[in-house]
Amino acid sequence: MKIEAAVTEHPSAPFTLDGLDLDAPRADEVLVRLVGTGVCHTDLVARDQGLPVPLPAVLGHEGAGVVEAVGDGVHHVAPGDHVVLTYDHCGTCRHCAAGRPALCAHFHARNFSGVRPDGSTPLHRGTTEVRGRFFGQSSFATHAIATSGNTVPVPTDLPLPLLGPLACGIQTGAGSVLNSLRCEAGSSIAIFGTGSVACAAVLAAVLSGCTTIITVGRNPAGLRFTAELGATHTLLTGDGAVADIRDLTGGGAEYSIDTTATPALLRHAVECLDQGGICGHLGATAPGTDVHLDMASLLFGREVRGIVEGDSLPARFIPVLVELYRQGRFPFDKLIATYPLSDINRAVAEAGRRDRPKAVVLPG
Hints:
Strand content: 25-35%
Helix content: 25-40%
Distance between the termini: 16 Å
Order of helices and strands: EEEHEEEHHEEEEHEHEHEHEHEHEHEHE
């Protein structure tokens, strides 16, 4: 079938809209008509080849849409169902079998190669192949082929275009607090960054009952926005932030999260911890990026934990976030600004300037 998609042709090039051919779904695949796709920092890292996804490719990995067709082996969704498209995983390795699909042994091949396990792609431009399996979906398009394993059904009475970011960025920020760190009521947390992942972490910290929620960032407007979401204190990025966090928490935060993928700020996120504190490292960086940490500080029980996709089991966690949103306890819609798919480059350019840090592009 003919579709329209935002194609990444060359490293760091702007997205360009083009007509492509999309294959019919195979036995374990799902054809989805997309109504909204979140723009994630990981898309931009891949576009700029910090993550070396072969090009040309269609990126996008926070799709939400309506099922149009399913393969013979798909039984949990049917045409007409509303779905969110999340990260892909094999479902059979020891991590997937243990309920930790974000650590799938085949995560890189399933999410960053742009092809199926057999090396094929469902997208073509005439006789030219276009990588069309980014995160098992490539959802910067009007339609996508997803897999049985990364298609999560959601209720039909909620605003479907807004639900796409639950697939990655929002579940990463929220899951880091709720699943990975398991922050207790009354605890303190320092969150470095003011983007959508950080804002989702703030919402989850409020939900968890954290009583000291400190955000650290370089953008005063972004910091003011985190305060509206529930941050109790805001600090500008700088060498004095660590001392300020220690003062505000009476010795150091119990938890911290770095969403910036900046080595210096990851170090600050560790140094601001109390003894026994835990730092979650969330940011996507280019392979080979180094960070320097004080070993003497780590010796006293401080911990750095890499977190992928909020340690979530999407088929369970995304419906939980949807229900919390329905109840008004997780208002992630406050983060979202919408753009037509044709304005995807403007959505990216405005990401650091708007009050709402999460862009969602709307096909059609």
